[in-house]
Amino acid sequence: MKNLLYFLVASLFVPAFGVDLEQALNDALDHDPVIAQADAQRRLGKQQVPQAVGQLLPSVSMSRSRSESEFTPADQVVVDPDTGESIVIPGVTRESDGKSWGFSLSQTVFNAGTFLGLRAAQLESQRADEIYRNDLQNFYFRVAEAYMNVLRAQAQVESSDAAEQAVKRQLEQAQQRFEVGLVAVTDVLDATASYDNAIVDQIQAHSTHDIVFEVLGTLTGVQYSELARLGADMPIVNPDRTEAEWVRLAQANNPQVEAARLGLGVQKKLRSATLSQHLPTVGASWNRSYSEGRFDALGDNESTSVSLGFSLSLFNARQLLNSRSSYIQVESAKQGLINQQLTAARNVRNLYRTVVTDVVRVEARRKAVASSSAALEATETGYQVGTRDIVDVLIAQRALFNAQNGYAASRYDYVLNRLRLMQAAGSLSEKDLQEVNQYMTSEDPVVRLAGN
After folding, report:
1. pLDDT per residue over 14-33, tens digit each?
2. E strands along 327-387, which residues?
């Protein structure tokens, strides 16, 4: 048994090689407890419909009983008229037994509240689907974000490692030049300080790298050792719709807006059901019973009855108070819908502008890498001929590494913000992640650092 448990647990954390975004998504679908819980909540919400239908179906019941009893009357004393003597007549024990059974069927003929409750349950079932659709889109984005965070951390590791090596070389050169009297000791001290800072940045980058790998592994249930990178050929383009079109899409398709709209419908039906308590209700029933027994003259009995009942509530203070509460519930749901519509429109507008800005930012970051590289080359040349000092070189190196890291981060920001825009509009799906996955490359994969 212990071996079986070990195998089941270990199977969730086996190393995986050459994994891309689509594979990570499939693994997460199988192992993420959050989306599994959301699906269970959806199925639970949809159970309200059959429960409401059950209120409209006939109710059938059956009963059966058996009884046995004995009855012994008290002794009687009588006087013999001839002799005048008292005569005791003992009581005679009488036994009785009986059997009975009954069968009844009742059916609601008219109850407006029950019928309106069914309609409210149907709307609630649709609302459960919309809530799950929102949870599913959140799940898609969580997977993409966790994956991109690994790629972002990898860029930071590569940048910090390169910075550490570059500053280390500068420190060695400064020490050599100081030993032969070409530079002052301040160059060595400046290089040493920069190297110490580079070591700190490297440690932090490596720690973050391990953390984000662990986050992705928790989400997918698999501890990956290698991940595919985002290829350089991925197009960085503006959204394929105008801002106004994205807003209209969000108003019509955002699952939170749809859930709020259905929630308003539910409250309206429940209000109508509450008001319908003042309407008459009609019900029909059919009953059949049979009994048999033995006690002197008592014999068998059999009866059948059919009834049609009518009831009307003339006054009920509780119903009146419930009616007032139902109006407040409808107003609350109405304001909730308005809030969701405004929130969806605001989020879409902001994310649309963010994506447009990201397109420009990525291009600017790319140019910054080229210019920083040229600036570093010129600064190093100046340092060799004595027109620049070590501080200028260290600053230029840091600027280049920051530019490279910023360029990589801007590409990941673009991917995530574009997915956020789709999510805000309610259109994010598995296909959108598969589209991003087309630009993943297994060449030079992201490798989890040794010892982590």
Report:
1. 444 569 999 999 999 999 99
2. none
